[in-house]
């Protein structure tokens, strides 16, 4: 179909890739999917395959254990009183907002960052809905110091933290068109 200027005009439906959005958007969604799958596979391996008793650690090397911890809150167990359903709803709302932001991403770094956060948040929502808590299992500490262990976390938590860090880097260093 051609328009008045004789140029090819796109069909109203567009092709599938056009409907899925920009290359950055698709890339961000791919990162989200990869993080989600990796998170769920690692949680399954720890919670269903390994014979871990809750709160009994398996030492991998000095400074790192695998441990089964059910986190009923967010960020080190905070906000537990809100309950898994409210926390899940909150994470879903934030993830939807991040998807809209991802559609407008101007840099690859921002698309990767948003995808990491969306994938991590989605992985933790699945835990809350299916188990009533988030499955944490990575336990780091500084051996020989007697200092407390860092709160246990998982792949999704790591992706969220890395994603936030990448958003900060993107904001500080990304080249964008300057309005003058």
Topology:
Blueprint: H1 16-19, H2 23-49, E1 58-61, E2 64-71, H3 83-103, H4 108-131, E3 134-140, H5 155-173
Antiparallel strand pairs: 1-2, 2-3
Helix pairs in contact: 2-4, 3-4, 4-5
Structure, described:
It contains 5 helices and 3 strands, in the order ααββααβα. It is mainly alpha-helical and 180 residues long. It has one domain (22-167). Strands 1-2-3 form a 3-stranded antiparallel sheet. Strand 1 (58-61) and strand 2 (64-71) form a beta hairpin. Helix 2 runs parallel beside helix 4. It is globular, with a radius of gyration of 21 Å.
User: Mean pLDDT, as a whole number?
Assistant: 82
Question: How many helical stretches?
Answer: 5
Succession of helices and strands: HHEEHHEH
Strand content: 5-15%
Q: How many separate structural domains?
A: 1
What is the overall shape? Answer: globular
Overall structural class, as computed from helix and strand content, comes to mainly alpha
Largest sheet: 3 strands, antiparallel
Total number of beta strands: 3
Oligomer: single chain
What is the rounded Rg? 21 Å
Helix content: 40-55%
């Amino acid at each position: 179909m051609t328009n008045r200027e004789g140029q090819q005009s796109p069909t109203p439906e567009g092709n599938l890739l056009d409907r899925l959005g920009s290359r950055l958007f698709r890339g961000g969604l791919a990162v989200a999917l990869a993080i989600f799958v990796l998170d769920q596979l690692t949680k399954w391996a720890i919670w269903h395959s390994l014979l871990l008793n809750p709160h009994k650690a398996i030492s991998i090397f000095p400074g790192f254990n695998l441990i089964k911890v059910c986190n009923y809150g967010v960020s080190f167990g905070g906000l537990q009183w809100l309950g898994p359903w409210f926390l899940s709803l909150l994470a879903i709302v934030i993830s939807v907002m991040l998807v809209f932001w991802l559609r407008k991403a101007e840099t690859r770094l921002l698309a990767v960052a948003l995808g990491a956060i969306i994938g991590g948040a989605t992985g933790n929502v699945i835990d809350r809905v299916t188990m009533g808590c988030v499955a944490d299992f990575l336990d780091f500490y500084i051996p020989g110091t007697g200092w407390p262990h860092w709160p246990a976390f998982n792949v999704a938590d790591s992706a969220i933290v890395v994603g936030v860090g990448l958003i900060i880097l993107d904001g500080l260093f990304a080249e964008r068109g300057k309005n003058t």
